[in-house]
Amino acid sequence: MQPLLPEDPQVVGAYRLLGRLGAGGMGRVYLGRSAGGRTVAVKIVHPHFAADDQFRERFRREVRAARSVGGAWTAPVLDADPEAAVPWVATGYVAGPSLSEAVATAGPLPAAAVRALGAGLAEALTAVHGQGLVHRDVKPSNVLLALDGPRIVDFGIARATEATASLTSTGVSVGSPGYMAPEQILGRDVTGAADVFSLGAVLAYAATGAPPFPGDSSAALLYKVVHEPPVLGPALTGELRSLVADCLAKEAAARPSPQDLARRLAPADGGARALLRSGWLPGPVVEEVSRRAVELLDLEAEPAAGAGAFGPPDPSYGAGVAPAPEAVPAPRPARPRRVALSAVLGGRRSRRASCTLVLSVAGVLAAATTAAFVFDLLPGKGGGGGTTSAGRPATSAPPDRSPASSVPEAFLGTWSGDVVQSDGTANGTMTSTITAGGTGAYVVRTRYGALGVVECDSKAKLLSASASKITLEEVTDGELRFGCTGVTATVTYTLAPGGRLAFASGDPTGGRPTATLSRGRG
Fold it and tell me: What is the pLDDT of residue 182?
């Protein structure tokens, strides 16, 4: 969790905000607490959406649908105000890491934990589909791990099944490349079977630490989902491997139902709870859950100076613009702006990516484009089959190659490459210009791009350097742009074979992104 920034509201509805949990394509997510002491996750939509009548109507519909979702393994919608100046929704807070964070930190889950995870999620989807809903974006970052079982979250993008046709006509596709079902990608009717496909991909990732459709661009991922068999890896064996393969069938009718999956994974007399009763998470993940729970208990909601009774969001939030770094008070360091490409394919609004450009997610690339446009991007379909460059490289002064430099000569120059999240989701491109300088100097300027639509600039201060690796602290460079939000991250550049650089960011909100950079590309 990050502290609130000066531009953040202090209060939303009946909830006092305590900190930032993340950001996505629809809005920002905060930790909140009611007057009665209940802790919630509050999602506030981006202010520019508030003026969009079509968005407001869709948001009203989504909130009504999400309120009907019950079941033990979902985070319930507790409160919402679609009519507010800046609409918001509050859901139950889960004090645990996402599946993507857990796997990135502790590695793949053991087989018993994968079975318990699958049984809980299958029961959750049974409840969701029982209300005539399709989640449409089941992915590792939307699965939270608690001590008593998993939770599916982010029903802000759920759609009533009967509304599929009308929503499809808007030309917007919701989902994440690599986890979307083939029929979603192709713009066909989407039913609960699409969520089953996504669940299979999630379980493959949980068991192996890698997505079943690897790729270095969104176009490649989409093509593989539609045309190629999944890559399940040797770690996925036996009945679990067979179950995942059944979920990942290309034809929706060939996939099992969530009820079938629950029966195959858990005993008939106890269901998912029987698998979860004696503890289901590996030790490192339990430690992280415990740490977050203790952090939550220690957190106090101190009223802001001059704050009165609970009321609507601060008017300043409606401006939707963060102050330039120079205007931020000294106690709050400037934070890099995370471009969240969760994705604006075809000029649509994008989800946020990290300043190191990893599309976050919340993160993660949630494709928002017409199916026809997406399919045009696929190899062999006339759209070029590749990603668009990040745009012009960041500018900087010519390298100072004096002997006093702490940055080794081999790192100097301009480097570019494609960015990938830890769960395999493609997150656009990045171009870094590395100049000479010593510890404490800003020696790297980077531009992160999302298909030529979303751009964020950052600068990075040298923390340490060796002959083969430099470590830096990255912050925003310039004013906040649309699609970017502030996060500070520690990043590294390491010499790699073939005259390339391996880039890595430790930012969990951005999906712990990585990239392999080539000199002079872009």
Answer: 96
Residues 185-225: tens digit of each pLDDT = 998 989 999 999 999 999 999 999 999 999 888 888 999 99
**Quick one: residue 98, left, alpha or beta (phi over 0 = left, psi -120 to 50 = alpha)?**
beta
Sequence spans of domains, the chain? 99-287, 337-519
| Residue 328 DSSP code | S
- Return the CATH number of the domain spanning residue range 99-287: 1.10.510.10
Does this model's pTM top 0.70?
Answer: no
Instruction: Say if residues 378 and 222 touch (Cβ distance below 8 Å).
Output: yes
Instruction: Extract the tokens encoding 83.
Output: 């009519």
DSSP 99-120: HHHHHHHH-SPPHHHHHHHHHH
3-state SS, one letter per residue, for 266-277: CCCCCHHHHHHC
Q: What DSSP character marks residue 70?
A: -
Residue 369 clears pLDDT 90, i.e. is over it: no
Active centre residues (catalytic): 137
Q: What is the CATH number of domain 337-519?
A: 2.40.128
Mean pLDDT of 100-122: 95
